[in-house]
């Protein structure tokens, strides 16, 4: 018997954005370790992300390379959100939906087609494809169950909530009230009757109808929201299997596609000379570039905080830099020499956050960064900007007590004095927040050890997939 006769064949379809793709590939690694046969749908420019998996599992993981569908607003050769910025999500989502027919043809012509699809929550149209080929689809959420609960609540009654200034979520755990400006970006930007936005609405509603949901989260962090979804969706195929970044392929170098050794070894050496918990790490993810006024305010705030720091700066094109985006103010690095380090290239974020010298993380609160901060056991200094980040910040600051809000909004320019004060006070006096962060780290580690909730959920997920061929 061949491997495909005894092991389920699964199609994995990641969404081409750093924060979506990396955790789903980490999950794929776990599934391959359990003996599953996997096909990963990828477009040509994103194929390098699969290199470590294809090397590790040459006989059980196969890429399905389909051309990226053209779109009048996407320049040729661009196939990843990182090359467009966050606003490119609508374009990428719309383009990828055109893979429906090529993918259907592949299914119908395959001698042993997959028995299930695991696809990103931005690819909800695969629910219709799965229904057409009569197999189950599982939604992979690279973000949290709190966000999924809010999404389900909002999109099922979008016309009611859209005109409001704030939304009362009293039927959800935590009974939060959100300003509309702080709700997920896709909901805020939705335009009724626009074909592209109607696709987004359909994608979101399809996720709630999927056969199962897999979350890059864990029960000690979001158990009450996973329980809520089990009741709301009417089944228990809700699997919290995170933090996936703890045990994925080459997690210390996640997202680095360069050649040779990882850069910034000097940063780790510098950290070795710092006192425990004394350094704040500043990074706003792979997509967000700060404008000139924000760069200047943040630089002054870091100067005034009196705390050691590492600042990762996303730099842009020559034109963007001419407009001040991602430009470090003149003389700043000289003024903070010895106390601060500025990085303008890829940074080994997992390793930095896990270093004992780092005690705080000034973050936009993207979900991957949130989990990496939790695994590092550091306090989160929250500056949510867009997408799911306000939801994540609320979870960290109010529900879990492991974060402090320092600013909010994609275009906000913080008061430098106040920013410096909050960073300094939080790092020096935030003992309670830091302690809760360390406790949450231990719970995250427990979740992914034998007998832990995430390991048990992964075993349960594989068991459910195996039932499909029994």
UniProtKB/TrEMBL annotation:
Q: Does the keyword tRNA-binding apply?
A: no
Similarity section: Belongs to the UDP-glycosyltransferase family.
- Keywords from the named record: Glycosyltransferase, Transferase
In Pfam terms, one family for this protein is UDPGT
Gene Ontology MF, one: UDP-glucosyltransferase activity
SUPFAM superfamilies linked to this entry: UDP-Glycosyltransferase/glycogen phosphorylase
Q: Kindly provide the name given to this protein in its UniProt entry.
A: UDP-glycosyltransferase 89A2-like
User: Out of the domains of life, which is the source?
Assistant: Eukaryota
